[in-house]
Design goal:
The chain is α/β, with parallel strands linked by helices and 359 residues long. It contains 13 helices and 13 strands. It has two domains: 97 residues, Beta-Lactamase (2-Layer Sandwich), CATH 3.30.450.90; 210 residues, Rossmann fold (3-Layer(aba) Sandwich), CATH 3.40.50. β4 and β5 form a beta hairpin. α6 runs parallel beside α7, α8 crosses α9 and α9 packs antiparallel against α10.
């Protein structure tokens, strides 16, 4: 048993999502969004380096010592997986570990809208799950991949850095590939995937032009592609994909995106006030011919209005999801107001409305 496993055991006992280890500081746990210090002496650089190097693959240690940053996955069989990140900082080494539960929560477990069960059954196209870091994107994607795994007889390839949720093949065959271990890059894995008879491809992060371009190509050539971006809304997601391309290519990209994009899920996490934990509020955009035309014509600023009037098709404005949680007494009025798009709707719920001019 590695020495650091005692901290992972503490994470499980405290229901923490993250473990922070930093030279000259005591260990800290993120519990329901807050960082809480552990009653433990501050860690020295040598002590911490020895502790984290014990669980790191040799090749990852080499990358870290060359670059000052590295990501990898660590698993305690039968307990959980962890996404690990090492970094150098002013006082020495630091490390952050994100808990990835061994049990994959289903769409029903998470209380996701029914439309999210339709996306995994599509034969082709691009589905994007977006939101800030730590907003639960990986959990939502895992639920949709799990639904496909149960209800389809197909080949699913996931490309991640590192591998997070591990899916056991059920009705489908699932192959997991980790960037830096099983493939050189997201782009290299996507190029290879097109020769590996996939039906569904999960791209853990669409971070550069080449990866986005290959994901669009795969979606346009008869594959169902799931991917993530760090954007805050459906409209901004569409703009982000288009803007990553040179101006000379953007008209063609709009046409390809209009044809290939099938759905966008933009989500944010809120701290629960009814019980410990957090809950997600989702904005959902289901592509149809009208929205495709807006994308093709460069009128993405009209997308929020289309989401509002297209609820029968499965569209869901973010503010509606926030209001549902607020009326259900699951989240605080203050956080609802802070994260809402149209703050005027939420001011009446505040006991002390801020004296601002945002609305």
């Amino acid at each position: 048993m590695a020495r650091i496993d005692a901290f992972f055991k503490l994470m499980a006992e405290q229901k923490a999502s993250d473990l922070h280890l930093s030279t000259s500081n005591p260990p800290m746990l993120r519990i329901n969004g807050d960082l809480i210090r552990v009653d433990y002496p501050p860690l020295t650089n040598d002590e911490l380096q020895s502790m984290v190097y014990e669980i790191a693959p040799e090749m990852k240690i080499k990358v870290f010592e060359e670059t000052g940053d590295v990501d990898f996955g660590y698993e305690i069989p039968g307990v959980a997986r962890y996404r690990a990140n090492f970094l150098n900082q002013k006082y020495g080494i630091a490390a952050v570990f994100r808990l990835i539960p061994s049990k994959i929560l289903t769409c029903d477990d998470l209380g996701l809208p029914p439309v999210l069960k339709r996306f995994p059954l599509l034969k082709k196209g691009l589905v994007l799950v977006t939101g800030p870091t730590g907003s639960g994107k990986s959990t939502t994607l895992a639920a949709m991949i799990d639904y496909a795994n149960i209800h389809r007889q197909d080949h699913i390839i996931t490309v991640e850095d590192p591998i997070e949720f591990v899916h056991k093949s059920q009705q489908s065959l699932v192959n997991h590939r980790e960037v830096g271990v099983h493939t050189k890059s997201f782009a290299a894995a996507l190029r290879g995937a097109l020769r590996e008879d996939p039906d569904i491809i999960l791209v853990g992060e669409m971070r550069d032009l080449e990866t986005i371009e290959l994901a669009l190509t795969a979606a346009a050539t008869g594959h169902l592609v799931f991917g993530t971006l760090h954007t805050s809304s459906a409209a901004k997601t569409v703009d982000r994909v288009i803007d990553v391309f040179p101006t000379s290519q953007q008209n063609q990209v709009r046409a390809t995106l209009a044809e290939s994009l099938k759905g966008v899920v933009a989500q944010n996490l809120f701290r629960r006030i009814d019980k410990p934990g957090r809950v997600a509020a989702l904005e959902i955009l289901v592509f149809d011919s009208a929205i495709a035309n807006l994308v093709r014509e460069g009128k993405t600023h009209q997308i929020p209005g289309m989401i509002q009037v297209g609820k029968k098709k499965g569209n869901q404005p973010l503010d509606d999801a926030i209001m549902d949680h607020l009326r259900g007494l699951r989240i605080s009025p203050e956080e609802a107001y802070e994260k809402a798009n149209d703050k005027k709707k939420f001011r009446p719920f505040l006991t002390q409305p801020p004296d601002d001019f945002e609305d």
